[in-house]
Amino acid sequence: MTRTTTPQNLTGEQVGAYRRDGFVHLPGVIGRADAQRHAKAALGARDRLRDHHAGRTFTQLLQLWQHDATLRELTLDPALGALATRLAGTPLRLWHDQLLIKEPHNGAATEFHQDQPYWPHRGTRHALSAWVALVDVPVDRGCMTFIPGSHRLPALRPQDLTDHGDLLGLAPDLTWRQRVTVPLRAGDCTFHHSHLAHTATPNLTGDPRIAHVVIYTDAETRYAALPHPVTDPLGLEPGAALPEEHFPRFG
Predict the structure, then answer these.
(1) 177-226, pLDDT tens digit by residue?
(2) How wide is the angle at C-alpha 13 spanned by C-alphas 116 and 127, nearest 5°?
(3) 60-78 in b/e burial notation, b at 16+ Cβ within 10 A?
(4) Where are the alpha helices (DSSP H) in the chain?
(5) pTM for the whole structure
(6) Any idea where the domains of the chain sit in the sequence?
């Protein structure tokens, strides 16, 4: 596996950029050949697993590490987990993984939102997502746009991913903030903080946009009694620790 960015060569400048801006682009966290192999597995998973998102914005498949051996390698990749831990500066565990696939010519943006409000977490000091491009993702294939520094917002209510004005209505000052769009090559990754405002463009191309997202949370995160498809089947009590067999620790 040929990698450009590793835990050993991650720089202090990259860590500082993540903590300042709430996101960082890391090239080549996996090699292009491995990205192609994982993309093939992702399309196979799309054809056999249930979509967790109702709508045309994207296809969302959860907990791939429990259903596909190839994608499990990426979700539990110790190097990716080590990068996340270095950026966060705190011990982490897996929250969940997901495939986010925008089909060709889908015509729908994923509108500005924070991730944290959707998660049944209590006492989380830090959570972040590794958004790994399994194919080239230029601007017109559905790449991500971030509002730097917006991770300092508190977690708001969950936002409507189809309503361009929903998050901006909750935090109107964001309307005037700089936005940074980050196209990715296959194998590249952006890490972003769970409070960071971000969006993704429509896929205007003839090929699917395939991203494998690994979400990490503070190792000491507790369960909050809120509905979520990952925790709903587990019968957890409010305030319970996240069980290791479903949410393994990194490091």
Answers:
(1) 999 999 999 999 999 999 999 999 999 999 999 999 999 999 999 999 99
(2) 15
(3) bbbbbbeebebbebbbebe
(4) 12-21, 32-48, 69-75, 78-88, 166-170
(5) 0.97
(6) 35-98+119-129+164-191
